[in-house]
Amino acid sequence: MPSQRLSLSTGFPPVVRPPYVLAAGLVALGWLAILDMLDTAIFSSEAGSLGPGMAVVSGVLLKVKGIPLELWQSLCVTDVEPDFSWASWSQFGAMGAIMTLAMMLPCASPAWRMLRTGGVASAAFGFLGGYGFIWILFSLVLATVDMSLHLHVGPHLVSTAGLTGVLAAAAVIGAGVFQWTGFKHGARLQIATCNLPDIHGDARLTSSFPAGIRYAGYCVRSNGLLMMCMVFLGMMNIVAMALLLLAMALEKSATKTHVSHGIGIALVLAGSLWMYGAVAN
């Protein structure tokens, strides 16, 4: 039985098709929520744990009116009790999920291409659903690691002196070296071959949702270590988020490996500077 297509007015340019606007609005809402959380946290005792570069943007953070301040403030709390609690974990998990989805949903190239070119909207949203599901699971792992480090070490690891800072900087360097490996190159090739999946004309969730899961799996293999850097750079570090999002978007659009290699060099240099600072202090 042929799939049901969503009728779209041919008068809509690609960037203002209603399904595209809806998806873009959801991503924008996530970024606005993050900016509002940062606007609250930047003047609190937690400002020091937001990560490198945050002092530069402290005066220009966007303040969103009309959203319950207590909600975002509670999500942005990075202090934890001396022992594990599900309440603290849920805060870390919610913060990690918002951060991860805001960064990774814009990188779901096939879904955005379907929405722009008039493909089946339900297929695109099914693809986004599967893609987002995997990244939410990844974000919960990220949040658990972040909470564990807060419990046993402390926040903002790359600025910590001594062995802890050296190990955090070494992890950033390791993520940079990974950009040059054959495993990374293979994962990038898998993403490139999936950029135009076979479910463009198939509105069934049984096809589009699993396709999104598969695509997200390749993305996790390719970009998972880059996302893990957020644990060391600061989970709510808007500077690191923007730079990593830009890097991953450029990497997906490049046909050659020079962008991946450039990202790797930048991470190795940054990690080396932080390691020097950790040793010097």
Description of the molecule:
This protein has helices spanning 18-41, 54-57, 69-76, 86-104, 109-117, 121-152, 163-178, 182-193, 205-233, 238-253, 258-280. The protein is mainly alpha-helical. α1 crosses α3 (69-76). It is globular.
SS content category: mainly alpha
Q: In percent, how much strand structure appears in the residues?
A: under 5%
**Quaternary structure type:** single chain
Q: What does the main sheet amount to?
A: none
Distance between the first and last residues' Cα: 68 Å
Alpha plus pi helix count? 11
Query: What are the segments in which pLDDT stays under 50 over at least 5 consecutive residues?
Result: 1-11, 55-80
- Topology, number of strands: 0
* Mean pLDDT, all residues: 76
Topology pattern, helix = H, strand = E: HHHHHHHHHHH
> Level of helix content?
55-70%
How does the SSE layout of this entry go?
Layout (H helix, E strand, L loop, with lengths): L17 H24 L12 H4 L11 H8 L9 H19 L4 H9 L3 H32 L10 H16 L3 H12 L11 H29 L4 H16 L4 H23 L1
Helix pairs in contact: 1-3, 1-4, 4-6, 5-6, 6-9, 7-9, 7-11, 8-9, 9-10
Keywords:
281 residues; disordered N terminus; mainly alpha; 68% helix
Question: How would you sum up this structure in a few lines?
Answer:
The chain has 281 residues and is an all-alpha fold.
